Amino acid sequence: MKCSGCGANIQFEDPRKPGYIPREVFEKRVEEGKEILCQRCFKIKHYGKLEPVEYNWDFKNQLKSYLGGFEVVLWVIDIFDFESTYREDIANILKGKKIVYVINKIDLLPKAVTVKEVKEWVKRRIRTTNPEDIRVVSAEKNYGLRSLVKHLIKLTDKVLVIGVTNVGKSSLLNKICTHENTISPFPGTTLGILRRKARDANLYLYDTPGIMTKDRILDLLDPDCQKRILPRGELSRRTFKPRGERTVFMGGLCRFDIKYETELSPIFLLFSSKEVVFHETKRKRADELMKNRLGDFLKPPCNKSRYEDFKWKKETFILKEGEELAVAGLGWLSVRRGPFIVEVTVPENVKLAVREALVNPKR
Ligand SMILES: Nc1nc2c(ncn2[C@@H]2O[C@H](COP(=O)(O)OP(=O)(O)OP(=O)(O)O)[C@@H](O)[C@H]2O)c(=O)[nH]1
Ligand SMILES: [Mg+2]
What we know:
Layout (H helix, E strand, L loop, with lengths): L22 H9 L7 H9 L11 H9 L4 E7 L3 H4 L2 H6 L4 E7 L10 H11 L8 E3 L8 H11 L2 E5 L6 H8 L17 E4 L6 E4 L15 H7 L6 E5 L5 E5 L4 E5 L7 E6 L5 E5 H10 L19 E8 L3 E5 L3 E7 L2 E8 L4 E5 L7
Parallel strand pairs: 1-2, 1-4, 2-3, 4-6
Antiparallel strand pairs: 5-6, 7-10, 8-9, 8-11, 9-15, 10-14, 12-15, 13-14, 13-16
The protein binds guanosine-5'-triphosphate (GTP) and magnesium ion.
């Protein structure tokens, strides 16, 4: 038997492992005909609290064996974190399948950005033969879901739903289907495959555990901090016009040292979650801040941390107007006046990518 929240196999032996529920509780729930939730899902659901479980199963490696049973795969991608949720390695595994791309969380973008613009932007980045297979939605705001279901039932009656952790797979299914899966801001919420029926259609959707990543800032934070940093509501943004030797921080784990040779000083915007501290300072003070204020003033991390707790890397970019520099799992820098040179300091594994602007400069 599986936990109906996360899909882990129910067991009574080890509270540290997935699917644990005390036997008495289990028996009582069965007697009362209630749904069976493991202890971890129960706590997430009722107290918003994460119970850590020993779990080191990487779904990516299992994915291939499940794919055989499906012709259509619904790949959920997070618009806030496009570069690390639309990934080459996943695309390779899905080769030969009919893929419907669900671009989720568009409610996070500034209101001035239209759905059409987002769709066009995604189309230029995802190569697909049928543009109708790119669906822009918000599971949170219930946007675009009805037409997604309509599109899916034209293709099949069973769909495998995949994507990296925390992109909103379970949230999406909860809106479309009759039964609620556990959702939470913690990555790795879903632990097994769960079959769900769409509410008003002859369609089964299979929720799956998220594919773990290691290249997002989010991946370096403890679960409570991830929960705080995960954006809710519209993103925060601020304009910077640094002159002279300046450094701008996007939290404590991402530092931009601005260098420029042209006459006009650069102008750019930062976009991130409201919990991320934006701070501009003199180059000279930046080192000291990084050494002494990680996690108390410069958040994230959420707790006081040492500079030495992280391995750092520096990468240099030339950024032009109309471009953005995305920092995986944290946010992005959007150029308003350039070109300029920026040296970025982030922890070693964090993916940095220059891309065409998602939020158009006129916004
Ligand atoms: N702003 C916003 N947040 C969303 C949306 N959909 C999901 N979320 C949030 O994203 C977080 C993760 O949601 P889940 O549905 O648990 O994500 P998942 O992909 O199933 O995650 P795993 O099971 O860990 O792989 C939760 O905090 C959700 O509230 C959305 O459309 N907009
Ligand atoms: Mg899930």
